[in-house]
Design a protein that fits this description.
Layout (H helix, E strand, L loop, with lengths): L1 E5 L6 H10 L3 E5 L1 H4 L5 H14 L4 E5 L3 H10 L2 E6 L17 E5 L2 H7 L7 E3 L7 H9 L2 H7 L24 H15 L7 H4 L2 H10 L14 H21 L1
Parallel strand pairs: 1-2, 1-3, 3-4, 4-5, 5-6
Length: about 250
């Protein structure tokens, strides 16, 4: 089994490569996005397509969903397997998500519920996983003193999300709007298992925020995305996550 593994430097990638190799897969690692962060999508499509022409693969794999890879795989009739491990991933609203050669696995049940209808037979819910052997070895080698020092009721690994929080870049929001949004986000923080912001934001709310945000996100390719989804997930959702993590 030969897998073309497209990397963009996710922390999940090394463990998954090692797991594929454990199962006896031959892994071709593509690093063009690591080496050239400014590469254009058309160049990516061209280079990936040329490589697959010379080195056929049984399937293409990536952490998170890349519409460019989906389109290439649709042309070559190669399975494109992706495992979405972040939220939000706005590329999931690209119309490429509906391509028949996709096999898209999503870690978050609510995101899965939202996008599954775009490609019902080819989108699946798959929670996060981990390669445990190295971690188990580390725990066995850890001294009792360090185990006591680092054992806590709350264990946290990850960023604070403050670096992803672009919500506050909206300048000069009317006080009433800002207060209403703050109330919505604090209410959402108190509800686990249901993301209701998209249901309560009105067209007027979205328009007001968009008018005051100088770089409101617009997905460049044909997509299912709405400004309401963008405001709720990319801006308010990330802001809520940052608040929750700081509070914790």
């Amino acid at each position: 089994m030969r897998v073309f593994f497209y990397r963009y430097n996710s922390i999940c990638e090394p463990d998954i490569i090692a797991t594929f190799e454990t199962f006896g897969f031959e892994v071709d690692v593509c690093t063009i996005e690591l080496e050239r962060k400014d590469i254009y999508p058309a160049q990516q499509v061209n280079e990936v397509g040329q490589y697959l022409s010379r080195h056929p693969a049984d399937f293409v794999f990536s952490i998170n969903f890349f519409p460019m890879l989906s389109e290439v795989c649709n042309i070559f009739h190669i399975r494109y397997v992706s495992w979405v491990v972040d939220s939000p991933v706005m590329e999931l609203f690209s119309r490429s998500i509906a391509n028949e050669w996709n096999r898209t696995f999503v870690f978050d049940r609510e995101i899965y519920n939202e996008i599954a209808g775009y490609n019902p037979a080819h989108i699946f819910h798959l929670p996060l996983g981990a390669r445990t052997d190295g971690k188990e070895k580390m725990f066995l080698q850890t001294s009792q003193q360090d185990k006591k020092k680092y054992s806590h009721d709350i264990a946290f690994v990850g960023s604070l999300y403050t670096e992803k929080d672009a919500y506050t870049k909206a300048a000069g929001l009317p006080e009433r709007t800002r207060g209403y949004f703050d109330a919505l986000m604090h209410a959402q923080m108190g509800v686990y298992g249901d993301f209701f912001l998209e249901d309560v934001l009105t067209d007027g709310d979205v328009s007001t925020y968009k008018e005051h945000h100088p770089t409101f996100y617009e997905y460049p390719m044909d997509n299912f995305l709405t400004d309401r989804i963008t405001l709720a997930q990319l801006y308010m959702g990330n802001h809520i996550t940052a608040m929750e993590r700081m509070e914790t």
